[in-house]
Amino acid sequence: KQEVTQIPAALSVPEGENLVLNCSFTDSAIYNLQWFRQDPGKGLTSLLLIQSSQREQTSGRLNASLDKSSGRSTLYIAASQPGDSATYLCAVRGRGSTLGRLYFGRGTQLTVWP
Amino acid sequence: NAGVTQTPKFRILKIGQSMTLQCTQDMNHNYMYWYRQDPGMGLKLIYYSVGAGITDKGEVPNGYNVSRSTTEDFPLRLELAAPSQTSVYFCASGEGGEQYFGPGTRLTVT
C-alpha cells in the first residue's frame, strides 16, 4: 500500500525566506504527483502536477521536483509572503491502481509572518 | 463553469440519523471520488466512480453508500450516522490527470 509522508508537519518563517517542503512516498510506481494548497476551512487548490516522466514543474514562485526512483518530491517556495500561509498537501496517483485515486500525506502547515 | 460543487457546506446530525451529501461537476469527467479528512490527517478515499452506473469502494467505505446515475452527480449517503463520521468530506472529479476538488462539507455527528 502506498504511504505518503510530509516533512516538516509545521513550519514558521519570516517573510522573504526561501523554503522547501518535503514529500516522500513508498511505492515508486506512480502515474503523477500533485501538490495542493488548503486554506483553513476551505477546499483544496491544485498548485502543481508533475507527471511520472517529468523531473520538475514551475508556476510563479513555486517549483516542484520529482525523483521517482528515490520516492521523493520537494516543493520550493521562493521569497515567501504572508499570503502563502496555508497547509500544503502532497498526493500521488498510483500507476494501474484504483483508477486514479490519490494517496495523500498529512500536510505541512506553513505560517509566514511579516 | 462552476467546477465541483458540494452541498451542504455544514451539517450537524444526531447519532442514528441519515443524510445525503450532494456533489455535482460540470466538466464532463468520468472519474469522481469521495474523500474524508479528519483533523491533522490526509484525505482518505471513501468511494469512487469511473462512470455513470459504476461505483466501487475505497479505503474507508463502511457506513456509506453511493450511486452514480448521471455523469454530473455523485451523491454520498450516510446511513445511521455515528460520531466516528464527524469529518470534512470532499468530492473530486478528474480525467486522466489532475483532480479537481469541491469546497467540502463539514459534518458533525453528536
Please count the beta strands of chain B (DSSP E, at least 2 residues each): 11
The percentage of residues in β strands of chain B lies in over 45%
Question: Helical segment tally of chain B?
Answer: 0
What is the overall silhouette of chain B? globular
Indicate the mean pLDDT of chain A: 92
Order of helices and strands of chain B: EEEEEEEEEEE
Q: How many DSSP helices of chain A?
A: 0
| Range of strand content of chain A | over 45%
Helix content of chain A: under 10%
Task: Give an overview in words.
The complex is a heterodimer of chains A (114) and B (110). With 114 residues, chain A is mostly beta strands. Chain A has no helices and 11 strands. In chain A, strands 2, 4, 5, 9, 10 and 11 form a 6-stranded mixed β-sheet that branches. In chain A, strands 1-3-8-7-6 form a 5-stranded antiparallel β-sheet, with no helix packed on it. The termini of chain A are far apart. The termini of chain B are far apart. The mean pLDDT of chain B is 93. Classes of the chains: A mainly beta (114), B mainly beta (110). At the A-B interface, strand 4, strand 5 and strand 10 of A face strand 4, strand 5, strand 9 and strand 10 of B.
